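Q: what sequence does this backbone want?
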């Protein structure tokens, strides 16, 4: 009798990572990657035709919020297990994604053996949180994203719709410095686009 293998989709916007993970995972006797996607739109379209056992999902995708997509998958296809695979180790990002109902959370820095264990665990209906993430949660708090006064001011002006040049003039900073702060804020809140950052700030009442 042929041994059953766990069918996995990977949604991550880094093609090289997808290829590397696919090659590594497919060496396993229990897990295999059937499709990879660099956008949420492509993944969503594929899910309409095929339902994997586990979806490896990066929260930071170029065309949408991973937490919103996670909720959509759960509502539409509740049997699919979702394992967050991301670089984000900030408490607020972790908590937001766990609150969205993912079945597990593991960092991209984790070894492939641990990733395979995580896939099997969530497939079996268990929650898998890597040791690194558990430690971050243990030490975390509701105000885990700490903003400096300048970061808070930049974020406020971003939410008011000001461009980098306007923010630079308002705060007496260079445009390059403002751009650096903008990128830092995107990273802290686990999003890739300013519109996603503003939406999150307004929704969560961060300011």
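A:
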């Amino acid at each position: 009798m042929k041994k059953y293998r766990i069918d996995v989709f990977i949604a991550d916007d880094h093609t090289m990572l997808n290829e590397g993970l696919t090659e590594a995972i497919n060496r396993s006797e229990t897990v295999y990657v059937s499709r990879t996607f660099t956008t949420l739109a492509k993944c969503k379209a594929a899910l309409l035709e095929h339902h994997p056992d586990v979806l490896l999902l990066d929260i930071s995708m170029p065309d949408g919020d991973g937490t919103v997509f996670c909720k959509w998958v759960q509502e539409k296809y509740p049997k699919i297990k979702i394992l967050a695979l991301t670089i984000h180790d900030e408490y607020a990002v972790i908590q937001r994604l766990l609150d969205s109902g993912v079945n597990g959370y593991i960092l991209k820095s984790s070894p492939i053996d641990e990733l395979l264990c995580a896939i099997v665990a969530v497939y079996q209906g268990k929650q898998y949180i890597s040791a690194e993430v558990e430690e971050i949660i243990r030490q975390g708090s509701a105000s885990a994203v700490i903003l400096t006064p300048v970061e808070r001011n930049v974020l406020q002006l971003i939410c008011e719709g000001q461009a980098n040049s306007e923010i630079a003039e308002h705060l007496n900073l260079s445009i390059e410095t403002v751009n650096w702060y903008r990128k830092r804020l995107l990273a802290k809140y686990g999003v890739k686009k300013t519109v996603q950052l503003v939406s999150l700030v307004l929704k969560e009442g961060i300011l």
